[in-house]
Amino acid sequence: MMVATVTVFGATGNQGGAVCRALLRHADQFMVRAVTRNKNSDKAKQLALKGAQVVESDCNDTRSLTEALRGSNACFVVTATDFSDSQCQQKETNQGKNIADACQKMGVEHVVFSTQLNVMKVCGILARHMVAKADTEEYMKDIGLPLTCIIVPYYYENFLTNTGKPQKESNNTYTLAIPMGTLSFDMVSVDDVGEIVVNIFLQKSQYLNKTLSLCGDKLTIREIANVFTKHFWPKQFKDKQILAEYVRNAGSPGSKDLGNMFDFYTRVDQRSSLALTQQLNPHLQSLEQWVSRNTDNFHFN
Length: 301
Hints:
With 301 residues, the protein is an alpha/beta fold. Helices cover 42% and strands 18% of the residues.
């Protein structure tokens, strides 16, 4: 069997890192080229130790992108949003287009792109990180790339970071500040996304020219809180019951975008398919399974 060279952009980030690790577990089928801005970073060095070919590239430099893709059979692309930059939406879109152009120039046979829905077109609100990815997807389709798109929801791993970590209210009471009301919330472990992308590459003909909405679990915020209470008792967890406006007014870079994202989630049905995601990754973790396996990684105040 021919070993396919897969170039992974965002290789030291959440999704790109998960895709690299999953591909490396299939070393008999894939050679992994991990693209990063700094091959001397700790994460880049770890990928190199596991067998990845680590290369430096600048998404604003088309020549370096072309070189990174030379000889690649397939490519995974995820773009990053720098909310601290007021021009982040246009810059992210430009970087995505640069990668697309380089893929086309180098004849890449299959591109898997991590996209999002265009909230501006759907309901007239701006979430720059989502619109940038949607605009990049549209460009990739316009130039005729052999494309599969995935839509990845909220990561379970966010509960370990300031993005979604439960906040202490009193001695043993913690709250989850996610503005979903009583609606279910689509989530997934980012680690599980890696194996999903591997299977998309392995089944190109089945998933080419499709957009796949992924999720590992669908729970209300109250149900999420109950999972945490079960595993961290006597600590108790509750839904803070906030509105999207609470997130919008947080005052940090990107807070308006994230507030608008949650507003979108509550106004438009989340159509992620649990059945499809399980088909793509038979070892897909529910939130409860993931929490059970990661209890030692939680550090509550």
